[in-house]
Amino acid sequence: MSMRNYEPVIGLEIHAQLKTNTKMFSSDSTRFEASDNENTSPVSVGMPGALPVINKQAIDFAIRAGLALNCQIRKKSVFSRKNYFYPDLPKGYQISQYDLPICEEGFIEFTVDDEPKKIQIIRAHLEEDAGKSTHQGDYTLINLNRSGIPLLEIVSGPDLRSGKEASVYARTVRQILRYLDVCDGNLEEGSLRCDCNVSVRKVGTEKFGTRVEIKNINSFRFVEKAIEFEIERQIDAIERGESIVQETRLYDPDKNKTFTMRTKEDAQDYRYFPEPDLLPVILTEAQLSKIKLELPELPQQKCSRFQKQYSLPFYDSEILTAERELSEFFEEAVKICNNPKGVSNWMMTELLRELNEAKLTIQQSPISAVNLGTLVGLIDKGTISGKIAKTIFAEMWKTSDHPEQIIKAKGLTQITDPKAIGLIIDELIAKNPGPVSEYRAGKTKLLGFFVGQAMKASQGQANPEILNQVLLEKLKG
């Protein structure tokens, strides 16, 4: 992407909180709903003499994520101390991985505006989270519940070229982590946060410009907007003859602008050295093979399968595989009625609309996959019409009842008896002698009028196909 003859160069660092029950180096709970400083112990508050112990589940989760991100998994990885001062970092250092990370040299692929992209992942390493500072006037409140929660930091190569690409990349990483069930991806709770590294250079130049980091963005929309603002800011500064300073900036979504937080440190400023209280993490081929076999079908694989197995268009498949639970709901419903496109249509129009309006997830849907599949099957059998189905769907949403139970209670079975439909049409013809004469005189467009009136008279219960056949026969005179 070129902007005013400049090319943006963008890399993302995604910090994903792993879904472990306990922290990275202690048995403290990771429960988000806990009261301030409830999930703490001598280890997470950095008391002298407290010793860390590695969380095995966090190691397994990191391996799962690394394999899904096409990374090489190191058989030997090492934890280091990253030294810096911040009020919510009680030890004065963060336990992280530096020169020997657990995962490296991976990539992910995705599409932006129908153009395929392949972005390298330089590394994905484990570390502990810091606490949280809340600033109130002259005071700063420290909550150490988050201190020590396991993080997987996923570092992309400088391969992204626009805010939109960066946003789609981040969404794709989140989708993969959620499929693996290693991170809930809840941006509002800070379970997934993004740091964006942005620089610009003249088109055709190989050397990178000075990199600026935008810290802790917790919305994909803000990732895109913050990067696009920063690109423009840097180009404007260069064209005014100013130098870009390597620094860390924050993004203000209300003003849609970035502002300086601090001058950016380099790796040497953190004075990394191996963590003396932790042994290296040694993995065996048997451990890696076991985790490989346990990996679920990932979103891109599932999207391709849906197109082949169910003959769905790419658009349907992409939406239905966006979340693992959504894809599972779809397949469960299809088992009931064997009509993939019918289920897809009802999910993508009626069901997703209702869920979005109610701000519910598919797991919270009042309509079960079995009930939706049954509804589609009843339409296919001719038991109910599409119009009746919408009435039943609305009742299913309110009550969670089975569609056949609703049909029985409300008498909504489709009328398929030609004689019964004929009586409705006879009455309709008797009431509308003028339109009948016009139709018989050649004004055949009036057929739509008669179909609509007949369906209205049958309260939407007449079988449309039989109704059309009987209507055409009787309108001949």
Structure description:
- The structure is a single chain.
- The protein is of the alpha+beta class and 477 residues long.
- The chain has 3 domains: 6-289, no CATH class; 298-397, no CATH class; 418-475, Orthogonal Bundle (Arc Repressor Mutant, subunit A), CATH 1.10.10.
- The protein is 40% helix and 21% strand.
- It has 15 helices and 16 strands.
- The strands form 4 sheets. The protein has a 9-stranded mixed β-sheet with strand order 2-6-7-10-1-11-12-13-14. Strands 5-4-15 form a 3-stranded antiparallel β-sheet, with no helix packed on it.
Q: What attributes characterize this protein structure?
A:
elongated; three-stranded antiparallel beta sheet; 477 residues; 3 domains; alpha+beta; nine-stranded mixed beta sheet; 15 helices; Arc Repressor Mutant, subunit A
- Please report the total strand number as a whole number: 16
Overall tally of domains = 3
Mean pLDDT: 91
What kind of sheet is the major sheet?
9 strands, mixed
Look at the helices and sheets and give the structural class: alpha+beta
Q: How do the strands of the widest beta sheet line up side by side? A: 2-6-7-10-1-11-12-13-14
| Alpha plus pi helix count | 15
Percent range for β-strand residues: 15-25%
Q: If you compute it from the alpha carbons, what radius of gyration comes out, rounded to the nearest whole angstrom?
A: 30 Å
The helicity comes to 40-55%
Measure the end-to-end span.
68 Å
Shape: elongated
Task: Provide the low-confidence segments as ranges.
Answer: none
